[in-house]
């Protein structure tokens, strides 16, 4: 993905021969670090980030191969991404321990970060996030994790075209210069391809985390979003959608029960892809509640 255009906020840091994007605001600690989902960029979480930066340091970033960061061959292992994030935080002089806020696929990288660097994690907020035990809680076999082939260019162009309306709605309240830059970067075939590549082997990510042993326990707050993304309505019958919601609730409850100070909150009206714009106040309050428990 081209990085010729400078990001509208933040800066690029040199990490292991690559330039990686990071934007920080606020002061104090523990610092809150957002881990984007697949097809998402750090600045997509700017609305919650600004609320969080009112009480502590808040950090947004782009993984290599996404957003304003330099290209990388995708997909990558969760260990590669977690180690890169740790190195980026050090390069940007953001000291740990951290409160990780992981959305969707970002959950895989948060779980691996916990395994690799447990002393550098104060707590975790999961935003309808990936978990290696997803299949355990999904009674409908059609919902189990499967490899997802990357679509061809024609399909990616169609996806890019159809995504425009959703991104414009999601980013409507962002500052104009930030919104315009995000739209220009999101609405490219390269960006859509990178997102598809990152989520292409979710069974492999789950296997990697399970093979590394138990995920160390830390205080956590797990959000479950029960709203339905428009694409899911098109692809899944109502019975399957209901089974997925039930499974997600079981997963959130199990995640909270397995951790010290674990908590599970259900957001009835938030959708998976847009949880931070559907329920920004609830998400922001949840991050603050967890942060206050660990600081």
UniProtKB/TrEMBL annotation:
Note the InterPro entries from the entry. AB_hydrolase_1 (IPR000073), AB_hydrolase_fold (IPR029058), AB_hydrolase_sf (IPR050266), TAT_signal (IPR006311)
Q: What is this protein called?
A: Alpha/beta hydrolase
Q: What positions does the domain AB hydrolase-1 occupy? A: 32-283
Name the domain of life this protein comes from.
Answer: Bacteria
One GO molecular-function annotation for this sequence?
Answer: hydrolase activity
- PROSITE patterns per UniProt: TAT (PS51318)
Name one cellular component (GO) term: membrane
User: Keywords in UniProt for this one?
Assistant: Hydrolase
């Amino acid at each position: 993905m081209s990085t010729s255009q400078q990001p509208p906020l933040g800066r690029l840091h040199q990490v292991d021969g690559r330039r990686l994007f990071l934007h920080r605001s606020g002061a104090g600690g523990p610092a809150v670090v957002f881990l984007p989902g697949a097809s998402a960029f750090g600045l997509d979480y700017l609305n919650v980030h600004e609320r969080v930066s009112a009480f502590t340091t808040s950090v947004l970033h782009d993984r290599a191969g996404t957003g304003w960061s330099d290209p990388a061959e995708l997909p990558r292992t969760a260990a590669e991404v977690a180690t890169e994030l740790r190195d980026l935080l050090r390069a940007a002089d953001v000291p740990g321990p951290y409160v990780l806020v992981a959305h969707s696929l970002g959950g895989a990288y948060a779980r691996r970060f916990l395994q690799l660097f447990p002393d550098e994690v104060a707590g975790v907020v999961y935003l309808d996030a990936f978990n290696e035990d997803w299949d355990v809680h999904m009674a409908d076999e059609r919902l189990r994790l499967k490899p997802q082939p990357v679509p061809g260019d024609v399909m990616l162009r169609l996806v890019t075209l159809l995504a425009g309306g959703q991104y414009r709605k999601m980013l409507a309240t962002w500052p104009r210069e930030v919104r315009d830059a995000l739209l220009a970067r999101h609405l490219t075939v390269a960006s859509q391809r990178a997102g598809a590549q990152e989520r292409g082997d979710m069974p492999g990510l789950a296997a990697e985390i399970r093979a590394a042993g138990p995920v160390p326990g830390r205080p956590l707050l797990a959000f479950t979003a029960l709203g339905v993304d428009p694409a899911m309505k098109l692809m899944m019958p109502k019975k399957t959608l209901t089974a997925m919601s039930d499974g997600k609730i079981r997963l959130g409850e199990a995640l909270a029960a397995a951790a010290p100070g674990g908590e599970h909150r259900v957001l009835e009206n938030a959708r998976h892809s847009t949880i931070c714009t559907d329920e920004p106040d609830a998400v922001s309050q949840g991050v603050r509640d967890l942060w206050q428990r660990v600081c």
